[in-house]
Amino acid sequence: MAKLKYKRILLKMSGEVFKGSLASGVDFGVVSDLAKRVKKVRDMGVEIGIVIGGGNIWRYRDNKASGKGGSGYELDRVTSDTMGMMATNMNALAFESVLNSIGCESVAFTAFQSPGAMKTYTVRRGRKAMRRGRVVIFGGGTGSPFFTTDSAAAMRALEMKCDVLMKATKVDYVYDKDPVRYKNAKKFTELTYDEVLKRELGVMDMTCASLCEQGGLPMLVFNLEKDGLIVKACKGAKVGTLISS
Q1: pTM for the complete prediction?
Q2: 35, 76 Cβ separation under 8 angstroms
Q3: Among 32, 36, 57, 219, which residue's CB has the most CB atoms within a 10 Å radius?
């Protein structure tokens, strides 16, 4: 077995990734490819937890002005966030099913209780499943409105005593501005949480940064579209942007 720098990781993926080229919903071709990548990492002996957003199905910021279409009605934030938590449950169930279908034993838990559909999350259940080598998927966000899935990922990573929080994005590094729009965008290979907040880099929200900093949890921001980077990172190779206290 290869020597590992990170033996227990929390992988945070955007729900947007799950829709692939679809307008919304789940592109199972994309999800199957992601599952194979996760299995490759698990087969190295890495214990893996996963948090998936729900933006491919529902997200507050995309729908907060639901009355703009002429109805004059704006959906309540709590209701919208509740719908978002249910969306993360749907993604968690989809990924659990695909992982199990390729022989990568996994289990999905939720902090937003869904009796009859998913097991309710507790720290004890999560840790036990990870010790047994299962890929553990955490749905339902934090279980409460007003929190992002980035914050949920930080919480679960700390609760599971992970070595690192890996945030999968569409770019190779954290930049000072959008590298697609600005050719002179500056990339960072290392940052502190203080620098992320002071520079307003937007890679995470304040709650997530605060949790990671106080818990001494490093975050690795990398490009999910490039295959093999999670494997390289777990083996100690320099990948993406490392953010630490």
Answers
A1: 0.94
A2: no
A3: 219
